Amino acid sequence: MVPEWLINVSIEEMPEPYREIAGYIGKDAAAALYELRGRMIYFSFADFADGTVPEYYGEIIQLIGKGNLIELIGRYKGNYVYFQKADEYLREIRNKKIFTEFNGENYAALGKKYELTERWVREIIEQMRRPALLQNTMPFEQISFF
Question: The pTM is what?
Fold first, then answer.
């Protein structure tokens, strides 16, 4: 299942190949393909030669529909597409969203929204605050002895 917060990510924030695919089948369908993360899919019109849909496309059809699958096959025909895990990239986006939505006391609500524990939300907030605090401090001047 695609996390709700991922559906709300802008196309510009999506990692490749999801960003490119969103241009062909839309952002929501491209986000649904996140379920395929870590897999390489071969898109071929030859698979539809007899008019039936091969079983191995079944999961993709459930995620995005037959029309969108045919659109992707038309675009990537004869090519493999690797759906990267992108977990670290998406984690950064999620953490920025949590930090932006944080109002000083909504740890539990953010935890529920992003399917995290309240403790983990607190940790993310602290991690995101550290760089901001460091930017606002006066840098130490290096003393030269020569």
Answer: 0.64
